[in-house]
Amino acid sequence: MLSGSCLCGEVTFSLAVSPKFFYRCHCSLCRKQSGIGHNLATLVRAADFSWQSGEEAIASWIKPTGYRNDFCKPCGSSVPNLLRNLPYIWLPLGLLDDAISPLCIGDYCADDAMPWDDIPAETRHAQATESVRALLDKLEVP
Ligand SMILES: [Zn+2]
Ligand SMILES: [Zn+2]
C-alpha cells in the first residue's frame, strides 16, 4: 500500500498498486498547472485508489474543453482527480510519500514545450496521445 498527501497534509490518499510508469505533458495548460515545464503524472484504476482524508478540502477548476485541475484549498497543491468520468484517477506523482522507481513512457505535447525545458529524444512525442485508452495501455493500466 502506497500513500500520498498534499503540501499541508490535509488531503491524503492510498494506492493499492505501485505505478510502473509515468508520463510528462509539456502543453501550456500542464505547464501552468505545475509551474514548471511539464506535469508528471500517471493513471491508476479508481478501484486501486482511496481517499484517506481531506476530500472536503478539494476544489476543482474545469476548463470548458474538459481540462481539469483539482487542488487542496488550504495549500493549493494539485491533487488526484477522476479522469473525465472514467473509472481512472489522474495522479500527480510528486504527491506520493513512498519512494518508487517508475519509468517514463513518454513526453507529450513536446511541440508546445518551452525552449528551456529539456526533453529526451527517445521519449519525445510532438502531440498528445491519440486517446486515453492508448495512454492507459502504455502505462500498463488494465
Ligand atoms: Zn493541502
Ligand atoms: Zn498537458
From TrEMBL:
Q: Where is the CENP-V/GFA domain?
A: 2-117
InterPro entries to which the protein is assigned, alphabetical: CENP-V/GFA, Mss4-like_sf
Matching entries from Pfam families are given as:
GFA
A molecular function GO annotation: metal ion binding
Entry keywords, A to Z: Lyase, Metal-binding, Zinc
Provide the family line. Belongs to the Gfa family.
Please state the span of the N-terminal signal peptide per the UniProt entry.
none
Q: Which organism is it from?
A: Rouxiella badensis
Q: What is this protein called?
A: S-(Hydroxymethyl)glutathione synthase
Q: Which Gene3D superfamilies match?
A: glutathione-dependent formaldehyde- activating enzyme (gfa)
